[in-house]
Amino acid sequence: MKFFIDTANVEEIKKGIAMGLVDGVTTNPSLLSKEKKDPDAVIKEILSVVDGPVSLEVIATDAEGMCGEARKLAALGPNAVIKIPMTEEGIKAVRTLSLEGIKTNVTLIFQPVQALIAAKAGAAYVSPFIGRLDDISEKGMGIVEDICLIFANYGFETEVIVASIRNPVHVLEAALLGADIATIPFNVLKQLMNHPLTNIGIERFLKDWQSIKK
Ligand code: E4P
User: Fold this and answer.
1) Mapping DSSP to helix (H, G, I), strand (E, B) and coil, where does residue 74 land?
2) Burial grade of 142 (CB within 10 A; 0-12, 13-18, 19 or more)
3) Which of 125, 126, 129 to mutate to test the pocket of ligand 1 (most atoms within 8 A of CB)?
4) What is the pLDDT of residues 156-191, one digit of tens each?
5) Distance from the CA of 164 to the center of ligand 1, in angstroms?
6) Which residues are CB-contacts of 161 (< 8 A; sequence separation ≥ 6)?
7) pLDDT cut 70: percent of the chain above it
8) Of residues 83, 103, 139, 207, which has the active-site annotation?
9) Longest C-alpha distance within the chain, in Å?
């Protein structure tokens, strides 16, 4: 299972890389706005520090505009992947870009057939948003299960990025379902490594060691 980090914060990305836990990065306009820096400079820095795919989102809402932005973003680095929203215009753009060899990640997916359509159009990745579905009392992980089944049924190579992850249980469930990728916020990445019994165990070992060192 690949771990992407869902952030536009370069320090967080570097910390994740140091632990060998960053197979790629996903950003979006909201994450970039949190950084309060020139987004173009942030994007360039992320592309340079990360070896794997970095998803960068278009702002245009029409296919022609999306393709124009996508070509510029794709020219910034071989690891740039273009995030396109799941709309009719978006799907047209995905088709055009895939024929040009530009990789796309179709974002804001909330039901399985949207993922099927994105895969048929030639998307390299689809991003179902789990947490936002949970927020409105729908079972977010249910659509990941359905998308994985649909892609397996027809042998699609499109990879499933479980997005809008809010907690460690989302990562566990995504892994149990065999999703290709989880894109994880940095705070959740840290939570994944913690267990109170681990901390208690370390404390006890240190205490016992001290008692024989006296
Ligand atoms: C994924 O590509 C998105 O950037 C992200 O996971 C959205 O998460 P949110 O619902 O917490 O904003």
Assistant:
1) helix
2) middle
3) 129
4) 999 999 999 999 999 999 999 999 999 999 999 999
5) 4
6) 4, 26, 105, 125, 126, 127, 128, 179, 180, 181, 182, 183
7) 100
8) 83
9) 74
Helices 63-74, 88-99: inter-axial angle, 10-degree rounding: 40
> What's residue 173's pLDDT?
98
Rg for the chain, CA atoms, rounded: 19
pLDDT of the residue at 191: 97
CA 146, distance to chain mean position in Å, is 18
Which residue intervals of 109-195 are DSSP H helices?
Answer: 112-121, 130-135, 140-154, 168-177, 186-192
Q: What is the mean pLDDT of the chain?
A: 97
Residue (of 188, 186, 187) closest to 174 by Cα position: 188
DSSP secondary structure letter of residue 125: E
pLDDT digits (tens, 9 = 90+) for 2-25: 999 999 999 999 999 999 999 999
The CA-CA-CA angle for residues 55, 58, 62, to 5°, reads: 140
Active site residue 103: no
The sign of the torsion formed by the CA atoms of 86, 89, 92, 97 equals negative
Residue 192's pLDDT is: 97
pTM equals 0.96
